[in-house]
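Extended Data, panel c. Modelled sequence:
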Amino acid sequence: MRPWLEARVGFSSLGSFSKRFARDSAYWAAATERFGTRPFPGALRRATPLLAIKPATLRSWSSVIVRAVDVDIADEWAPYLERYRAGEWRDRIFRDMILADARRVKPKPKILDIGCGDGFDGSVPLQRSIAEVAGSYIGIEPDPRIPLGDYFTETHRCFFEQAPLAAGSVDLAYAVMVLEHLPRPQAFWDKLHDILADGGVFWGLTVDARHLFARLSLWADWLRVKDFYLDHVLGRDLGAGRYKNYPTYYKTNTPRRIAQLAQPFRSCECINFSRVGQWSPYLPGWLRAMANRIDRRAIRGGRPGTLLIVRAVK
């Protein structure tokens, strides 16, 4: 049976369902998978823009409890989802989500960029714009080949789990396309909980492992053909800014798995972004029309898109 703990957004009815529906939906009983709970009905699935996972209420690794988020929170995400569905690239949208939260946390917060090399999702100007909001801006980048911006107040050339950061010292942390590369994600989440201040927020942008794209990526890794594919099929060499091929694991890339790993956090929200053409840039031209047809069918069926955004509050 498909896991029913899913954050479904970007599909339809964004912010359009009534307050009464949202209020009633808050009373959903979240039965567990071990009792064979049926998935959400299609109409309910399509109308629900977000599910907020409450890790603190988890009773066991096989017992997952969720609740529907209030309509006001859903409305908060709706403009970002509409921008993505209209064709805007993900980097500016995710930057804006982080900045909106940073301004709420406190004036001039201490911000941590986990995997800060090559800018914010490849954009140095966007990364610099976050530095302008931060009182202190910390960067962590384990790859010594990648230069780091001079706008960081502190940098560490190591993996996040080994970074010498004081407990409770960070107000907001984020990671762009990092979670899929974690071979031991529990150590990452434990470190994250340790270094965040009370009320501190973590944002993660990653690939949703429930989408076909993640499975194809894993198969390419297992077959050891990903470098050949990137260099020769897509024709993107490293000198032209080709995607760096770090190993992928997808061990913390579904809402259900994140709920298990983030149990100490006060709350954790998973937001899925979906649109037609979302993974076409990673495919050769002759496959893109087929990928777009897959996207349209997935959206009609309420299935997850390629992007998963995580917001966890300590």
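Residues 19-313 form a domain with the Rossmann fold fold (CATH 3.40.50.150). This feature is highlighted in the accompanying rendering.
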